[in-house]
Amino acid sequence: xxxxxxxxxxxxxxxxxxxxxxxxxxxxxxxxxxxxxxxxxxxxxxxxxxxxxxxxxxxxxxxxxxxxxxxxxxxxxxxxxxxxxxxxxxxxxxxxxxxxxxxxxxxxxxxxxxxxxxxxxxxxxxxxxxxxxxxxxxxxxxxxxxxxxxxxxxxxxxxxxxxxxxxxxxxxxxxxxxxxxxxxxxxxxxxxxxxxxxxxxxxxxxxxxxxxxxxxxxxxxxxxxxxxxxxxxxxxxxxxxxxxxxxxxxxxxxxxxxxxxxxx
Amino acid sequence: xxxxxxxxxxxxxxxxxxxxxxxxxxxxxxxxxxxxxxxxxxxxxxxxxxxxxxxxxxxxxxxxxxxxxxxxxxxxxxxxxxxxxxxxxxxxxxxxxxxxxxxxxxxxxxxxxxxxxxxxxxxxxxxxxxxxxxxxxxxxxxxxxxxxxxxxxxxxxxxxxxxxxxxxxxxxxxxxxxxxxxxxxxxxxxxxxxxxxxxxxxxxxxxxxxxxxxxxxxxxxxxxxxxxxxxxxxxxxxxxxxxxxxxxxx
Lengths: 264, 250
Known about the structure:
- The complex is a heterodimer of chains A (264) and B (250).
- Chain A is mainly α and 264 residues long.
- Chain A has helices spanning 3-18, 21-47, 55-85, 89-93, 99-129, 140-165, 172-180, 198-202, 205-217, 224-254, 257-263.
- In chain A, α9 runs antiparallel to α10.
- Chain A is globular and about 60 Å long.
- The longest helix of chain B has 19 residues, at 231-249.
- In chain B, the strands form 2 sheets. Chain B has a 6-stranded mixed beta sheet. A 4-stranded antiparallel beta sheet of chain B has the order 2-1-4-5, covered by helices on one side.
- Helices cover 40% and strands 26% of the residues of chain B.
- The relative contact order of chain B is 0.17.
- With 250 residues, chain B is an alpha/beta fold.
- Classes of the chains: A mainly alpha (264), B alpha/beta (250).
- At the A-B interface, α1, α4, α10 and α11 of A face α1, α2, β6 and α3 of B.
């Protein structure tokens, strides 16, 4: 692993994002819109006839946390797509870059982008709804990291699929996380889900993160059970995703798909 | 005899039911400019892709700088570079930003000085701060070449570098490549459909048809072999009667 090459790739994405207003706006536009809509709805539910205690905390917390996962996955996949869109992919793949270095660079970009979006949302939630996510204290760190790593794993799988099936499968970049969303107990507790779904949910690292988040926000503190379960599952998924990506990369090279993707 | 830079032995590449490269063997020596010629589907692009590691061969062996390509991919690519009319650099970045990224990727020492030298050599110093997407085809080609020369490559693969250029700029690019090759002793593999390009720039050509080399030699030797007046006539003859030629060879 050569950090000079990784930093060069990171620099490439840094230039790309800092030189493009639409890309910067895209980092905030949807998360902010969602936060505003759901925040206002939650406020109404709290002040209206329903009065669910602490509901706003859980929902806004879940929204910010969901965005960490989503942005982390997006950044990993979009970095690859950006090179396809700019017809730069071949220049990257014929450079002395190891595939692992390419992936690590997309992770770094994902980390920074996720941090920026999450920070922006946190400030907005504090200003508009008096919800301070930093009140979660140090518990925030392991939960954030677990979502970030799960996003990397999902992003790597999505990128592998795009590499293998081409630009036609580009929509996977946006769609795949929403396959996970109903099962990962992001906006509702695991207990409220149908019993037959729970085993599936428990196999998703994010489920343990969201459960942990709700426990912290309810003032129960962070149980290490949640962190360890999420971290253990993430280790398995990240390894699996790396194997899957390697396999797809090998397939793409065997079938000459990289060259096609690079010149489309 | 100059040092062997590229050795390709019995290269074969199949895609499902299609044989893109049937059985190709050749050797390229240091400082040579070798043209890979052939009609669409002859196998030249696949051969280039295999040489760049973008595609894995079905069979055969590739050694570059005396090393096996698959097991020394990164070390080999560090000493090579590539430019194609069909690839681009990120269009919303400035020229200097794109060059900086690739200079760092190839770990070029004194990259500022190197970039300045190349921009001057290619007569595009004035484009340094321009957004890449706003460049004309000729300017883009020269910026791509600048990127391709950043790491002082010992082996440069050029895929139709003059495609989409007007004759004046194409001529300038050819002269420039010749000059760069003379001054730096770079080994080049050159593909083009422009036979004038090839006649002017290549020391030797490999004519491919249906995934096989059917003729090899200096441009003049190949022209003589086919009893034609120019490489373009050879190209047309091969494209139209390639099947017969392959049969005769057998």
